[in-house]
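Attaching the record inline, Q. Sequence:
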Amino acid sequence: MKLYKTKKGNLLSDGDHFWLLGGSWEELVNRSGLHAYLKGLSTGAELLSPVEADALLNSQLLAPVGGSQEIWAAGVTYLRSRDARMEESKQSGGASFYDKVYEAERPELFFKALPQRVAAHDEDVYIRRDSSWNVPEPELTLFINSKAEIQGYTIGNDMSSRSIEGENPLYLPQAKVYQRSAALGPCLYVPAEPISPSTRIRMVIVRGGQSAYAGEVAISMIKRKLSELAQWLYRDMDFPAGSLLMTGTCLVPGNEFTLSAGDKVDITIDGVGTLSNTVAYKPMHRNG
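Structure, as predicted:
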């Protein structure tokens, strides 16, 4: 492991994975290309012992997102997600929308979070008090530069209030966008080649020391190409500092399942690592 000390923050790296220890990730990445920048970090790096590296990895890691970067998400990119959304929206009569968008040329893309609303690895994610049905959504997340080029990958948790979205599809922003409704981490994975379609995503939800849900899927099950989603996001929009894009989920707990405060959600993606978060409610302000 090597520790890269810069004027604007510190990075821990094993060559392909970069953990943010301080500062802003956005400030550490120049806009001409992530790979070129990381290669330039070879000078002045401090070689750490395994004990020193483990101590840093067990400290509070920052989410791999810059201060002015936006986090977006793609919906209904897996067949299982389409079926789940249709099921939750039967009562509102909006089920057909999800079938149509799954088959359409244009994907569903929606704004998810600003950096200040994102939970890092080992931090709490929140569920809404006004939702009776809440689930995590484990997603491969793309780190995209200003030219719509995929430069790296991380793990995302797109927390979702299914009872709110199911009541009316127009409530999607309220179902998806609230404090700590997204988690990112634990690192940024920057491989030499694009991530393999055989890469698997795994999610385990632990409640009271026992597994309440476990599932896994290969990202090859996604309907759309990752580059296609990036290109659609950048149509008629500029992201001068780059962006992050969650690519959808295929791991959906059964309709009888809803998250509870204290649940632990572990999301693992081959080659990337494990993102762990505990479920909680947002603390109430004194004025209620």
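The first helix runs from residue 25 to 28. The longest strand covers residues 150-158.

More tomorrow.
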